[in-house]
Fold ABC transporter ATP-binding protein.
Amino acid sequence: MSAGGYPPAISFQSVSKSYPSSRGLKGERFLALDSVDLEIQPGEFFGLLGPNGAGKTTLITILAGLTQASSGRVSVMGHDVQTDFAAARRALGVVPQELVFDPFFNVREALVFQSGYFSVRHNAAWIDELLESLGLTDKAHANMRALSGGMKRRVLVALALVHKPPVIVLDEPTAGVDVELRQTLWHFIAKLNKQGHTVLLTTHYLEEAEALCGRIAMLKTGKVVALDSTSALLSSASGNVLRCTVDGELPAELASKARVTGRVVQLPAVDALAVEHYLTQIRQAGLTVRDIEIRRPDLEDVFLQVMNQHPGRDDRSLV
Ligand SMILES: Nc1ncnc2c1ncn2[C@@H]1O[C@H](COP(=O)(O)OP(=O)(O)OP(=O)(O)O)[C@@H](O)[C@H]1O
Ligand SMILES: [Mg+2]
């Protein structure tokens, strides 16, 4: 229970999940989640971050009751996802990572059908609002098969929200989505969060997580390796970052420390001396440096620091 006596919106207690190992060795299991403990309170906007394969979707699939944890307890608004499945499922709206949909319906029919699944009647006004808010009004009668990838993702968001669930889970909702829809989507989700809906978001766009989430958990190889408020995570990052553009390939020693995007190089710098040292090394390599900027670390820098502090191969196999 939280301080106010309410159950958490989402609770994972010592959740582990193993799958048969893909190496095909008889009896060998792969540990996708390793004793995950997380509690998300009602009204939070919470970010779940981690590299590919960290276990984010597995955690969400367990939350939605679609997969069973190997051990541990999971609940939504106090309802156990196994023993009280119907109530837990009703409290939850999940936007899945994969584009799955029924090809026989048009958009509005799919939303009406989904309302029926949750026994919500007279839902036309809310369906209209969802279509409007997600820029789908003119696609209401289009068949799902005829929609573009980004449009399908909008429909998945609408489907997840059709029963106005108190807890909204978005598994990479902006993958493959254009800039305009991202803004529309975040505006809408932030509005729902202000109205009291709890939001759990996974994304690889760390600037989105930094802007939206009040608290963040980072997952690596099935374990929680960081959990704090976004502001505490940002201030935990040491030093500054040197950002500049260079006209060629960095020397190997620097490249191993840098975030490189095309010509833009970003290097963590403890102090001014480190900045000078980097610039000298770059110049000595015969490169020209332009557009020098020193900035505070952002969430992507923090993420990389955390992941580097928890090194190690992904060897989650159990025999
Ligand atoms: N049904 C399954 N059977 C076997 N292994 C699985 C299954 N589902 C997931 N895994 C494995 O569990 C690990 C975690 O996968 P998961 O999809 O949860 O990662 P993720 O953090 O969501 O990654 P991404 O950022 O790529 O979406 C991966 O190594 C994956 O191969
Ligand atoms: Mg995933």
User: Anything to note?
Assistant: The mean pLDDT is 91.
